Amino acid sequence: MKKILLSALLMTTLTVTSQAAVAKDQVKLQADIAEAKAQKSKAEDTLKALQAQLPPNEQIMTNVKLGYIQTDGNTQTQTFSLDASVKKAFGKNNLSLILNGQYGSDTTTDATTNVSTKKETNNKYFAEGAYGYSFLETLSFTYIIGYKNDKFSSYDYQSYTGPGLKYLALKNATNELHFEASALYSKDKQQTSTPDFDETYGSYRAKLNYTLNILDNLKFEQEASYRASFSDAENYFVFSKSALSSKISDIFSAGISYKIDYSNLVFAGLEKTDTTLEAFLSIDY
What is the largest CA-CA distance in the chain? Predict the structure, then answer.
């Protein structure tokens, strides 16, 4: 009986000692993990501080978005879209070029004669070049030149050029917000003459660009602009573009965008607002 009691006491003592050793090891392990996390956080802060000291990125940055829609059946529809931007910085100076275009057509086949008729439904393109000089980290001078051609609007073309200021209102790991204001010389060539306003006039444009990094691979972008004549408040144009894109690889992204293009003065029978909803493939290089 005594042997049994001694054996039980010995087993209990060994078990308690073993559990105490395990608990001690866990405490040490948790302390090591906490220390490793602290070292990692410190290393990340040091890396960010060192990166902030690097000179501005002076590589040529290019982004191209391609969209395509095709439908078949009684009516065959094809729609192409292109959005491209090129940016180059050198010291306090920077250059940028924006290009976008859309083309669409419908092909209808007569069931009786089997004759196909193709009708153009969309044909527009836009280009804008800009030069910038940074006075401060958040404030820069800009000079822009823009040209737009839309076959199915009231205008043969719209053009403008002039100086302005660009302000970086917000920039962190998640958000980036720019405001821009420009005083412009504009020329709008209408398809037919009208006394509503002169073809050449002084104007202004207010613009904002906002980027929200929702996740590491998910981004929302918003662009909005308002351009109007100084002398005629009824002569104004509004543009908005909202886009959501997701990274597929280092250079490829896929997304969806919605554009609103508004002209206040148009000919009778034409819509003032053009809207475009499209899916796109984006390439950064």
Answer: 119
Delimit the domains of the chain by residue range: 1-54, 58-284
- Residue 164: CB atoms within 10 A of its CB come to 20
Q: How many CB atoms lie within 10 A of CB 239?
A: 19
* pLDDT (tens digit per residue) in 66-112: 887 766 655 567 788 889 999 999 889 999 999 998 888 887 766 67
Round to whole Å and give the CA distance between 89 and 205: 24
* Alpha-carbon Rg for the chain in angstroms: 31
DSSP assigned state of 60: -
Q: Confirm whether pTM is higher than 0.85.
A: no
187 Rama class: left (phi>0) / alpha (psi -120 to 50) / beta? beta
Q: Which CATH superfamily is domain 58-284 in?
A: monomeric porin ompg (2.40.160.40)
